[in-house]
Amino acid sequence: MRVPLSWLREYVDLPAGETGRDVQARLISAGLEVETVEQLGAGLKGPLVVGHVLAVEELEGFKKPIRYCQVDVGQAGGTSQAEGSGGGTGRPQNIVCGATNFQAGDKVVVVLPGGELPGGFAISARKTYGRVSEGMICSARELGMSDELPRPGGREVPPGIIVLPPELEPGTDAIELLQLVDEVLDIAVTPDRGYCLSLRGVAREAATAYGLPLRDPALLDVPAPNGYGYPVRIADPAGCDRFTARTLTGLDPEARSPIWLTRRLQKAGMRPVSLVVDVTNYVMLELGQPLHAYDRSRLEGPIGVRRAARGEKLTTLDGTARVLDPEDLVITDDRGPIGLAGVMGGAHTEIADTVTDAETGRVDGTTDVVIESAHFDPVSVARTARRHKLSSEASRRYERGVDPAAAAAAAQRTVDLLVLLAGGTAGAGVTEVAAPAAPRTVTLRADHPDRVAGVAYGRETVVRRLQQVGCGVEGADELVVTPPTWRPDLRDPNDLAEEVIRLEGYENLPATLPRPPAGGGLTESQRLRRRVGRALAGAGFTETPTYPFLGEEVFDHFGLAEDDPDRRVVRLANPLSDTEPALRTTLLPGLLAALRRNAGRGEQDLALFETGLVFRPTGHEPPAVLPPVDRRPTDEELAALDAALPPQPRRVAAVLAGARERPGWWGPGRPATWADAVEAGRAVAREAGAELIARQARRAPWHPGRCAALLVVVDGEETLAGHAGELHPRVTKALGLPERTSALEVDLDLLERAGQGVVRAPRVSAFPVATQDVALVVDASVAAADVEAALRAGAGDLLESLRLFDVFTGEQLGEGRKSLAYALRFRAPDRTLTAEEASAARDAAVAEAVERTGAVLRGV
């Protein structure tokens, strides 16, 4: 909501020296989100006056139209520095101008020598195009304003130079006339503060913040309803509980919106259209009540309010033909729908454009109108606006709550302005259809705000602040509060407590640290997640949390089979994005998108990881039954909701691209490979105290020859925990990823179950280590992990560590053979090992490997 400070001052007598920044600070303290204060006319200096174009001479010989104009600027004339004459003699000014949208006889805006336009553009008399120009004829853009102004005499003027109404006197101060200098508060109105989408609502907050009285613009003398007004039939009182209709006749179709009205609309961010529409928009901004004007000559029969019939159609004011839904609340006449209630009117009954017949001079346009001022159900309006993707200024206000008691006042204000500006006659009939409604009351203990805020406000302060909000308050220790009609959000004691607290000042609340219960702390699962994060960060990975949503087309890019479990997703009923309507079943899509985004911004060497939940529906979850909202759900209802949720295992994923070790004086560096992804999985498993087994596997989206299945032992059986390796080239191409991107994804919950719980520190021996190397030749199909497992089993308790340090293939080994070289470290905790003991342990390890894998000791 844009609020001009000059307009706000009409309802609150703010101190003369208060600036927009001062008012912003007060309103923010009162709980409003005032985002910016726009300074209109900053840097603008006069003389800036109304000029009367006396003559226009077209200059020839230039590439673009150039005109030499003689302009009467009243007593401001005669300031030409070139001629050396004194100021204020009333002499017309000669001005060179390149615009062509005005003519002799028009009234324009002129800045004279000595003036300055916004942006530091100083004006002086100077010679240009062979003539001396004594000032400048201004366009709206040059003055920092919109070019939408009333058109003189009904003549359509293209945008460009400002052409003013003909009745203005030359020499009139244009800065004051066009209200060029002002400050505009831009307020982000939250959904619970819909009343602040009006000058009336913001003025109420400003009056309260300054402790000043409010001149309520809704306090008008409104005639009582009678039976002579335009007939209205409401078939759905739940959707429309109040409808006021007023009729005006004899409006002047040539009447234009005055400059003050147009400028206020522009400052508030609205585009002037025509006098009738401008007045309804003006009153909406002033009182917060949306209105609509119908051309009475286009109405047939009574106005009705009902739900749309299936298949009905309506062309709205934006020119779009819409198929209506049975839940849409519509305004009708005898022919059918003529408007979407609370959203937008129909094109058939809109105010007609004024047309002048060139031959006869006859002016045709709307002369009789019916004004609608109604109160519609907020939920119905919100759903209709979203269903048709048609948000409007009216729907924004109805969705947040409109004061139903202001409908009659808004209609009366509209009638008064149209009679004043268009010379019409207000009809004697006043139609008001209202459903009976008892006032809402809220019972509140007088000390409830004190207990909520932890501050002793006292009963007098609570009553005073609630009355400032507009509430009626009765009672002593237990207050019966009647919220005002413009505050539908005040429904329970906490809402009222919040009003007291915000008006007393959030900054005055004491800062008190919460006291955590004794004996708490992190769970083992939380500790594991922290250890995993530290381990991966220490290995050079950057944690990158991503959104838990995905689009199902990513599974096609991954090359997943149609029956792959990852394709079974949970779809959101109201997704944040239409392109990502499902919950993720894997962490990789989000991480790979983050990697692609960073690579596209020049980061070539990337290592990212994420720990998070995935959603794995089984297809057998019972349907969720939503519990009522008027009480706390029972334990059985909560258990049923939990049962309807899909399993949500926690996973760890990592992606790598580019260089794993950058080149420099220390060495040539190396690229990230599938082995780094596998090693990241081992690092995660070590933090869980689990032993990870890597075996070659085939699994999309990984490369079939560079994919490892990661297994752990759970309850004595090997269980698949995840996969790691290099992504398939087709996947990297489809997703726009760097070549040879590698990825890891493992089930952290499964690793925790496979682990030893608490990771214990290794034993440290003071005795020396004995190192033995062994090279074994095996078939190429034998996994290195199987050979390693056999060596560990045969070496016994003296084996401290085992490391594969070389893999060799060649002609001397034979076709389909490979050599695996291991370094074995032996150590005893209580003595120094002899050479015989170390050799015996080594021989036992080799013997076990020979028996299990058919290995042959190389060199034998």
Textual characterization of the structure:
The protein is of the alpha+beta class and 860 residues long. The protein folds into 6 domains: 2-41 and 182-210, Phenylalanyl-tRNA Synthetase, Chain B, domain 1; 48-177, Beta Barrel (OB fold (Dihydrolipoamide Acetyltransferase, E2P)), CATH 2.40.50; 232-434, Phenylalanyl-trna Synthetase, Chain B, domain 3 (Phenylalanyl-tRNA Synthetase, Chain B, domain 3), CATH 3.50.40; 442-508, Phenylalanyl-tRNA Synthetase, Chain B, domain 1; 524-614 and 649-754, Bira Bifunctional Protein, Domain 2 (BirA Bifunctional Protein, domain 2, 2-Layer Sandwich), CATH 3.30.930; 770-857, Alpha-Beta Plaits, CATH 3.30.70.380. The strands form 13 sheets. A 7-stranded mixed sheet has the order 30-33-34-40-39-38-37, sandwiched between helices. Strand 38 (702-714) and strand 39 form a beta hairpin. The model is unreliable at 79-88 and 152-157 (pLDDT under 50).
Features:
elongated, 860 residues, OB fold (Dihydrolipoamide Acetyltransferase, E2P), 7-stranded mixed beta sheet, Phenylalanyl-tRNA Synthetase, Chain B, domain 3, 6-stranded antiparallel beta sheet, 21 helices, alpha+beta, 6 domains
Tell me the quaternary state: single chain
So, the CATH homologous superfamily of the largest domain?
Answer: Phenylalanyl-trna Synthetase, Chain B, domain 3
Beta strand %: 25-35%
**Looking across the biggest beta sheet, what order are the strands in?**
30-33-34-40-39-38-37
As for the CATH topology of the largest domain, it is Phenylalanyl-tRNA Synthetase, Chain B, domain 3
Q: What is the CATH first-level class name of the largest domain? A: Alpha Beta
Please state the overall shape, judged from the principal axes of the Cα atoms: elongated
**How large, in whole angstroms, is the Cα Rg?**
40 Å
Question: What does the largest sheet look like?
Answer: 7 strands, mixed
DSSP strand tally: 44
Low-confidence stretches: 79-88, 152-157
What structural category characterises the helix and strand content? alpha+beta
Give the helix level as a range of percent.
Answer: 25-40%
Mean pLDDT: 90
CATH second-level architecture of the largest domain: 3-Layer(bba) Sandwich
What's the structural domain tally? 6
Please tally the helical runs, counting DSSP H or I stretches of 4 or more residues. 21
End-to-end gap? 88 Å
